[in-house]
Amino acid sequence: MIAKLRAAAPSCGPARTLVLSGFSGSIGTGLFLAGSMLFFTRGVGLSPFQVSLGLSLAAVLGMIASVPVGSLADRVGPRRALIALHIWRVVAYSLYVTVHSFAAFLVVVCATTMADKASPSVNQAMVGTLFDQQERLRTMGFLRAVQNVGLSLGALIAAFALSWDSRSAYDTLALGNAASYVVMAFLIWRIRGIDSGRAASAKAAVSAKTTENYAVEAAQPTAANPFKELPFLALSGLNGVLALHDTVLFVGLPLWIAQFTRAPVSLVSVALILNTVITALSQTWWTKLADTMAKAVRGMVIAGLVLALAAMSVGPAADVGTGTACVLLLFGVLLLTVGENLHAASAWAISFELSPAASRARYLSVFGLGQSTRDLVGPALITTVVIGMGTWGWIGLAALFALAGAASRRAALSVERIRQMRSAQTAMDPPAERMQSPAAPSPL
């Protein structure tokens, strides 16, 4: 797997630097996430309720903060904003070693989550500033692939620290994560030749245009408020629904296997490994299926249908024997992985193409609110409604996936249509000063 990733790696330059940065950060994230719950409960001494309350409050604050940070990135440039966010994370994660109470935990977890939620959109905006359309999708795909490898590697390293089961061991997890962001900030700082602010975004937008999506970019408003574009907001929400595949994989599937099927509990690990390996080896390939706006829109529909089939495969596993249950569950994981990767590639393309160049980071931040909402309500939805209703719950989830994929296509086309109409109206009604200019042709 490592050899194949190396062969598919971007050539030297900004793309490879970004990939190394993402790999470093994912190792730190895997390191911390693997032991975070034990850190909070056994290291700090918090109750599970206090931890869940703090994480929920931090998630809400992270959602609120992500859009202003995106607007700031549009002003100062994504590179500067990303370096600042990584330095913020270095400080915030280092402060975990000082946490000995719920109040201190709440302050630190809110500080870390604000930066964690804002960073992906700013990073995507930076990728768009650096590369044209084909290289942008390929870089994002490879980033996701190496991040999966990095998360697994970080979790493996964390196992050694967790075996000590002491506060000092847990502190090393937080400090290790902080150190990974030092590396990330340094690597991003090394990337040169990026203009700051709106000029850089506009320059990248011009270089990224292809024959097909030129009209889409031209129809975008030069200054817009994403909160006033209802189809774009709807697209963000529908993207969050499709992103429930992560909640199914990490929350729903383990509970379903362990408590409601005859499959061995060890199948949970097999499922996660299967998902990680396929994603790491094939993510860059999926981006080829979404390298134009038309393909990406179609990809959202297909992803919804594939995720629906995955849910339909997982649900009946509760009513069959061990062997059949294993087959159904693994087939469901395979479909879930296909849907997940196709959805990710399509969402990258759509969100970027529908984000005006002058406000790109802000629009990408608003688009990311759908997934932030998923993080808030997804676990409760999957555990309470889907699993609580048994097989019928999985059927309902399948219908939700299929409807979200179809509705995503309608929402994306609505955004394009409204902007094209607005652009046409602007062309028909030129500014008053243009009409009154002496150089204007006489109507006679």
From TrEMBL:
SUPFAM superfamilies: MFS general substrate transporter. The keyword Transmembrane helix applies. This is MFS transporter. Keywords: Cell membrane, Membrane, Transmembrane, Transmembrane helix, Transport. Residues 14-422 form the Major facilitator superfamily (MFS) profile domain. InterPro entries: MFS (IPR011701), MFS_dom (IPR020846), MFS_trans_sf (IPR036259), MFS_Transporters (IPR050171). The chain crosses the membrane at residues 20-41, 53-73, 93-115, 145-164, 170-189, 232-257, 263-284, 296-314, 320-338, 376-404. It holds the Pfam family MFS_1. It is found in: Cell membrane. It comes from the Bacteria. Residues 423-444 are annotated as: Disordered. It is a multi-pass membrane protein.
